[in-house]
Q: What sequence folds into this?
C-alpha cells in the first residue's frame, strides 16, 4: 500500500510539473501563433477556392483550364512552354474533304502548283503556290478538271444490242470499227510453231513409271517335304515347341556367333521374324531384293523375291505369315505370297514409303498403313487396291509405325521430331508428344507385354539407353529381362530392363548394325543384320 501511495504521489507531482511547463511554453509562443493565425485568415479570405475540397457549383471552362499558379520552370525552353494538345505540338482542327485534299496534292505532284491552304479561298481569285507559269498555261485547273480522253477512247465499237439476234448480238464485246485484222503465220512458221508446241507437250506430260517385272527364285531342292509340307511349316525336330505362344521363362546373354547368312550384294536394311514360330527370317536388302532364310537345321537360303527397282526399306508379315508387304525407294508397296513368291498386288502414291504395317486385328488383315515421305500415313485396302484413309498431321516424313492398345491405336514418329498417337480410322491425332529437347525417332518397338515402347532417338538414345544415331531397331527379350540394340559402329548392346545396367557389348558387324531381334522361343538366340550385307545369328 505504501508503495502504491508513493507511486500515485509521484504521478501527481509529474503532472503538475508538465502543466507548469506547458503554460510557460504557450505563454512564450502566443504572440507568434497570433501572427500566424492573422496571416492564415487573410490567405483564406483572399482565396478560399484554393483550399476548398468540395465544389458546390458548376465551374466554367475558363476556370477548369486556367493556367497553373506558381513559379515557372526556368529550365523549360520556349517550345516546351508552348501549349500542346499532342506530343508533337498543337494541332488545330481543320475541315476539308478527302477528295479536295487528294485533288490538290495530285495537282501539285503532276503540274507543280496548288491552292494555298493557309489563305481563305472563298474569294474569287484563290492564291496559288508553286509554278505560276504552268498554272497560267492550265488556267489554274486541277488534275480532275484537266483529265482528257485518250485517243484510243475515241474509237467506235461495232454495236448490236438486239438480244433477240442470237448470232449477231455483240453487246459490250463488239470489236472496234477500225481494228486491224490479226496476222496469221504462213506454212513454214506454222510448222515451226507446231514443233515447239509438241516439244512442250512432251516435257509437260508426266510419264508413268514402268513397273519392274516380279521374279522369284527357290533355292532349295524341293519346295515340299515327303509329307507335303512347305517351308512355312515350323520344324518339329529342334527340341522347342515353336507353335507355343508362351515366351521362354528365362533369357540369357548371347556369347558366340552361331551362323552368318550371306547372299545380299549390298547392305541389309532390316530383318523380320516369321510370325509366332520364328523358324524363318526375312531380310530386306539394299540390292532391291528380299530373301527368306532358315533359322534351324541347315539354315539355308530358301527363296529370293525380286521386283523392286531400288533398295527395299521395310517389310511386314501378316498374322499367319502366308503373305508379306514390302516397300522400297522405287515408291511402290508390293504384296507377296510367301510360299510361291508371287506378287499379288502393287500400291503406290507417287511418294517414297518409309515404313509399312499390316493391321494386326484378324478382321482387318486386308488393311495396311504406310508412312511416306510427303508427311502422310496412307491406309490401303488390299481387296480393292484403293486408298481408304489418310493421316496427314505430321510436318515431316513419317519414319516408323507401331500398333498399341490392343491394336485400337497406332503410334507414328516423324522427321518433325514429334510422336503422334492415332485412333484407328480417325485422321486426327488425339495425342501429340513433342519437346524442344526431343530428336527424331526413326525406329520404335513395342514390348512383348504391350506396355512399353522403345524409341530409338537420333541423339544416341533409346529412351535412356545409349546407341548410335542411325535407325537401329531395338528389341526386348521374350521374358522382358533385357533390351538389345545395335549402333553405328556395328556393336551389339544388351541392357538389363529393370536396372538399366549395361551387361555386355561386342562387335557384331563391320558397318552399322541396323536391326537386332531376340528369338521369340529361344532363351539366348539373337539375330542381327547390318549395312555390311550379312545377317548373323547369336547364342
A:
Amino acid at each position: 500500500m505504501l508503495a502504491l501511495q508513493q507511486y500515485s504521489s509521484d504521478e501527481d507531482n509529474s503532472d503538475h510539473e508538465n502543466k507548469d511547463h506547458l503554460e510557460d511554453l504557450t505563454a512564450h509562443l502566443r504572440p507568434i501563433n497570433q501572427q500566424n493565425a492573422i496571416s492564415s485568415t487573410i490567405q483564406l479570405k483572399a482565396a478560399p477556392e484554393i483550399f476548398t475540397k468540395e465544389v458546390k457549383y458548376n465551374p466554367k471552362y475558363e476556370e477548369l483550364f486556367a493556367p497553373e499558379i506558381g513559379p515557372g520552370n526556368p529550365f523549360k525552353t520556349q517550345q516546351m512552354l508552348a501549349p500542346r494538345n499532342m506530343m508533337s505540338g498543337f494541332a488545330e482542327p481543320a475541315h476539308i474533304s478527302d477528295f479536295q485534299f487528294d485533288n490538290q496534292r495530285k495537282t501539285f505532284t503532276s503540274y507543280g502548283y496548288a491552292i494555298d491552304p493557309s489563305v481563305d479561298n472563298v474569294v474569287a481569285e484563290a492564291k496559288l503556290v508553286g509554278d505560276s507559269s504552268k498554272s497560267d498555261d492550265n488556267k489554274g485547273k486541277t488534275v480532275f478538271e484537266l483529265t482528257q480522253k485518250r485517243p484510243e477512247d475515241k474509237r467506235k465499237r461495232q454495236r448490236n444490242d438486239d438480244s433477240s439476234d442470237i448470232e449477231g448480238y455483240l453487246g459490250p464485246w463488239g470489236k472496234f470499227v477500225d481494228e486491224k485484222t490479226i496476222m496469221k503465220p504462213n506454212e513454214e512458221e506454222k510448222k515451226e510453231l507446231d514443233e515447239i508446241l509438241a516439244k512442250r507437250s512432251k516435257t509437260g506430260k508426266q510419264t508413268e513409271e514402268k513397273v519392274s517385272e516380279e521374279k522369284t527364285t527357290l533355292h532349295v531342292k524341293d519346295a515340299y517335304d515327303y509329307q507335303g509340307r512347305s517351308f512355312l511349316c515350323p520344324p518339329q525336330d529342334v527340341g522347342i515347341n515353336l507353335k507355343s505362344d508362351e515366351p521362354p521363362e528365362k533369357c540369357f546373354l548371347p556369347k558366340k556367333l552361331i551362323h552368318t547368312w550371306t547372299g545380299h550384294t549390298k547392305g541389309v536394311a532390316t530383318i523380320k521374324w516369321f510370325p509366332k514360330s520364328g523358324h524363318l527370317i526375312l531380310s530386306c536388302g539394299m540390292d532391291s531384293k528380299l530373301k527368306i532364310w532358315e533359322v534351324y537345321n541347315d539354315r539355308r537360303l530358301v527363296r529370293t523375291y525380286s521386283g523392286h527397282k531400288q533398295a527395299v526399306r521395310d517389310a511386314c508379315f501378316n498374322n499367319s505369315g502366308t503373305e508379306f508387304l514390302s516397300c522400297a525407294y522405287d515408291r511402290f508397296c508390293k504384296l507377296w505370297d510367301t510360299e510361291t513368291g508371287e506378287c499379288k498386288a502393287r500400291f503406290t502414291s507417287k511418294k517414297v514409303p518409309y515404313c509399312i504395317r499390316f493391321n494386326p486385328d484378324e478382321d482387318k488383315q486386308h488393311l495396311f498403313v504406310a508412312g511416306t515421305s510427303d508427311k502422310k500415313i496412307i491406309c490401303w485396302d488390299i481387296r480393292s487396291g484403293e486408298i481408304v484413309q489418310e493421316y496427314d498431321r505430321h510436318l515431316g516424313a513419317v519414319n516408323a509405325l507401331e500398333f498399341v492398345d490392343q491394336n485400337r491405336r497406332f503410334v507414328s514418329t516423324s522427321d518433325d521430331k514429334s510422336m503422334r498417337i492415332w485412333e484407328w480410322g480417325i485422321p486426327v491425332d488425339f495425342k501429340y508428344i513433342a519437346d524442344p529437347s526431343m530428336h527424331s525417332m526413326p525406329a520404335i518397338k513395342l514390348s512383348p507385354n504391350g506396355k512399353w515402347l522403345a524409341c530409338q532417338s537420333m541423339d544416341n538414345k533409346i529412351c535412356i539407353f545409349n546407341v548410335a544415331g542411325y535407325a537401329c531397331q531395338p528389341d526386348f527379350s521374350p521374358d522382358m529381362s533385357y533390351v538389345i540394340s545395335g549402333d553405328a559402329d556395328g556393336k551389339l548392346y544388351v541392357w538389363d530392363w529393370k536396372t538399366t545396367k549395361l551387361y555386355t557389348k561386342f562387335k557384331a558387324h563391320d558397318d552399322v548394325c541396323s536391326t537386332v531381334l531376340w528369338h521369340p522361343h529361344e532363351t539366348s538366340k539373337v539375330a542381327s543384320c547390318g549395312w555390311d550385307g550379312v545377317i548373323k545369328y547369336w547364342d
About this structure: Confidence is low (pLDDT under 50) at residues 1-19, 25-48, 464-469. The chain has eight helices and 31 strands. The first helix runs from residue 2 to 46. The CA atoms of residues 495 and 503 lie 5 Å apart.
